[in-house]
Amino acid sequence: xxxxxxxxxxxxxxxxxxxxxxxxxxxxxxxxxxxxxxxxxxxxxxxxxxxxxxxxxxxxxxxxxxxxxxxxxxxxxxxxxxxxxxxxxxxxxxxxxxxxxxxxxxxxxxxxxxxxxxxxxxxxxxxxxxxxxxxxxxxxxxxxxxxxxxxxxxxxxxxxxxxxxxxxxxxxxx
Length: 174
What we know:
The protein is α+β, with helices and mostly antiparallel strands.
């Protein structure tokens, strides 16, 4: 028993594979931007929601009570300044940053000699990792499916043209 595998138009197939690389660039850029927004959203959500279990303080101007976050919890929102300072910034086509421009952000994220950390950006990144990977995978699959459909369509059209030619050739009188 013998099995023969023959690949027709190998150069065309390889050209299509090269095309995938070019077709994926804009798709990946969109995923990068969307991923950064996902991380920002998770960071904001962690600050604004969820029960905090830290100490209750009396705040003044305006007078209010504020429950702080405990060590290891994301910071508790008080004035909204921290949330408003979390931004997505695009450096160039391939680099997007999620950063907090509040002057005390690093103190909260990493802690100080007098305060344990209240991380919010790194946990948001960790929580967003899987959805970003899934979005990337879906985009890659979509591009490959689109190219495969195009190649199959071309092959089907070519096959139909050959069949039409054969019908025309065979239907003509000799």
